[in-house]
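Before the break, one more example. Copy the sequence into your notebook; we will annotate it together after we see the structure.
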Amino acid sequence: MAGSDLVQSLLRGLDILDLIAQFPEGLTVKDLAGRMGLRPSTAHNLVRTLAAREYLQKVSHPTRYRLGSALVELTRRRVSHRLHARAAEILVGLFEKLPCATLVFCESLGGQIVTTLRMSPERSGVLERPTGRAVHPYGAASSLVFQAYWPAEQREEFRRAHPFWEHGAHLWKDADNLERFLAGVRETGCAAPPCGDGIYRVAAPVFSPAGELLAALGGSIHDPASAGPDACRLTIELVTSAAEKLSAGG
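Here is what the structure looks like once it is written out:
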């Protein structure tokens, strides 16, 4: 594309983002204008426009601009899209080895743990993409994975939204039992809660290369006895291995 065809204001906006990215504490409009050779009024209009879409954030004392949340959100969406694509491939391959199991890929969204990918024997071979399907905060293995690896403040926030006495006490009797189980999850790298309802459940964490908890990969068998003597062992081994592969970018 010829240089004359480029939109100058857009180029300046991108240059502003590139420049401000070099200054985590932010830049004043005066400093920004000086570094870019712009009139202060032009620089002000550009940063005000970028701030309106949250690509920049205005902070005070002194008034300056730094990178905003929209850029972080764009990065998150890109990472999420790639993660979903890899997770879908791995889930399909995992289902071929565990056709008797219901397999799920769960994420933390809007204060809940929700299933975003699913495969089950009821719809064999079909990769489902549920929307808004929240799992039990204390009974689902995927929820327990998140609670095991979340920082304390995030775990406390989740429990304020989903009180233990209301949703978890009938499963764990008291919070100490739950905490002991979560400590075991961190030691073993997977959650396999007691199956009092006859359903065997297991889930394992999916991490980013930086060690951030991104998701949980889970599997459940509704009738372990009829699935064969090695069904539970095989499920935990394959689910854990698949989660590790996802964490490694495989």
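The CA atoms of residues 56 and 68 lie 4 Å apart. The first helix runs from residue 8 to 20. Try to locate both features in your own notes.
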